[in-house]
TrEMBL record:
Gene3D superfamilies: bacterial protein sp0830 like, SP0830-like domains. It comes from Rhodococcus navarretei. InterPro entries: DUF1697. PANTHER family: BLL4334 PROTEIN, DUF1697 DOMAIN-CONTAINING PROTEIN. This is DUF1697 domain-containing protein.
Length: 174
């Protein structure tokens, strides 16, 4: 039995509102065990003998059937998430800055976004490549209007990326 981290994109922030108790119930009904949610922004830990790709497909199907929306999720195992957090290249406690990880399920999209590195103002934001992720540091108050923030919000990346604060990821791993 494997423990998986499932990161849902765009719930409880963009018009798709799901109660965490309902989310846990839906995923339990879909056959997953030990389903736990962390915060109310679509962070789930669950157990399943399935592969990551199978978990992704089953979770997306269960969410579509239960909540009536086209769900997009990123699935990874706990050791992989721990390695991603441990590899954060910036100071996650830097005062006045947000530490983020952008997860991608399409490597070509991660590559496209990483190409923006040279266009960014380092006084406002920086990115660095990781293992199928991008690490992003941005000044507080500039997340949505920064060059990188605007790029990640484009429709073409909606189904393949999701962003989490490093502090949230630490809570998932706790």
């Amino acid at each position: 039995m494997n423990e998986w981290v499932v990161l849902l994109r765009g719930i409880n922030v963009g018009g798709i509102n799901i109660k965490m108790a309902d989310l846990r119930a839906a995923l339990t009904s879909a056959g997953f065990t030990d389903v736990r949610t962390v915060l109310a922004t679509g962070n789930v830990l669950l157990c399943s003998p399935l592969t990551a790709a199978e978990v992704k497909a089953q979770v997306e199907s269960a969410l579509a059937q239960t909540f009536g929306y086209q769900a997009w999720v990123v699935v990874l195992d706990v050791p992989t998430l721990r390695a991603i957090v441990d590899s954060y290249p910036f100071d996650a406690e830097r005062d006045g800055w947000h530490p983020y990880v952008v997860f991608g399920s399409d490597d070509s999209h991660v590559t496209e976004l990483s190409a923006l590195a040279d266009e960014l103002d380092p006084e406002l934001e920086r990115i660095d490549e990781g293992n199928s992720v991008l690490y992003w540091e941005v000044r507080k108050g500039n997340t949505t209007d920064s060059t990188f923030g605007k790029a990640t919000a484009k429709a073409k990346y909606k189904a393949t990326t999701t962003t989490r604060n490093v502090r949230t990821l630490v809570k998932i791993l706790a």
